[in-house]
Design a protein that fits this description.
- The chain is an all-alpha fold and 155 residues long.
- Helix content is 66%, strand content 0%.
- The chain is built from 7 helices and no strands.
- Helix 2 packs antiparallel against helix 3, helix 2 packs antiparallel against helix 7 and helix 3 runs parallel beside helix 7.
- The radius of gyration is 16 Å and the shape is globular.
Length: 155
């Protein structure tokens, strides 16, 4: 399979489905130990869900994999700005609380601090804020991602 086949096969609905799966995994961890404090695994999973939700929307809008992988990467703040410029507001109301939660969590996520141990003091937003934002993105973009999944099919 060449790179073009890979590009054609990565569609908005596939990314959306992965986002929903990461969300579900985070939900299981959060509910399994509700009083355990901060779970880096749960934070990672919910942030990855957010990343994939935003990328699924952008892919449905015609974004290339190069843009999603190389230029936006794992930077949740850049992704948020890009989806807002791409009119996600037509589907999802993004609040100042959502923006602030992304601003606070982004440095840890984009620098892979949930995947590799780093020492030092950290300040995380309440995970419930990220969960609510992820849930909103998943619920409100499903139809758009489904309708847009063939945008990258070969002609």
């Amino acid at each position: 399979m060449d790179e073009m086949d890979d590009m054609d096969r990565t569609n908005s609905m596939g990314l959306w489905r992965y986002s929903k799966e990461f969300y579900a995994a985070a939900d299981i961890i959060i509910k399994s130990e509700p009083n355990s404090g901060i779970s880096t695994v749960a934070y990672y999973l919910i942030c990855h869900s957010l990343e994939l939700s935003m990328k699924s929307f952008l892919r449905g809008k015609g974004a290339s994999l190069d843009l999603l992988r190389c230029k936006l990467g794992h930077d949740l703040a850049k992704l948020l700005k890009k989806v807002e410029k791409s009119n996600i507001g037509k589907f999802v109301e993004i609040t100042d609380v959502d923006r602030q939660a992304i601003k606070v969590i982004n440095p840890y996520y984009k620098n892979k601090e949930f995947e590799y141990i780093t020492t030092g003091c950290k300040t995380f937003p309440e995970i419930d804020l990220l969960v609510a934002f992820a849930d909103k993105l998943i619920c409100k973009t499903e139809g758009f991602c489904f309708d847009s999944m063939n945008i990258h099919d070969s002609k």
